[in-house]
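dude i think i finally got it to work??
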Amino acid sequence: MAGCDRVTKQMAATSLKETPSQSFWADTVRLEYAENAGGFLSLGANLQPAIRTVIFKMGVGLGLLFLLLVVIKNRWTGWPLIGGSLIFAGGVSNWIDRIMRDNVIDFLNVGFGALRTGIFNIADVSALLGVFILAFTYSQRNRDVNGATIETHGN
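look at this
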């Protein structure tokens, strides 16, 4: 997933930068180039550069390392491993942008009429999908089955 994100960001930088937004499928999907110095929905973009460095370069780097250690220590398999891997791949790709460019290239926007998402990229989709997979997987862990609570360990 990280490779796909890297390629699509390069394509966006070469073909969308300094061009008007492009609309597809009755304006359901828009392609428009944006550079995001902040996090999700540009949160933190207006912070001082030194603070952004601590949060988005050092903090995210440590968060990715922590995630990797949790996956290895707990020997995740199956859906948890898939979810964690998607989060890691998306996070690493955006982190590489921050290390190399001080911002992240975003280029996708979806919606209907005035109801639209913020501008995002494939790494964001990967990380969000991973979060949903982990949340769903762990919400099923202690689910009532035939009146009994089942607790599982491992995956």
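The chain has one domain: 2-117+127-141.
im so relieved honestly
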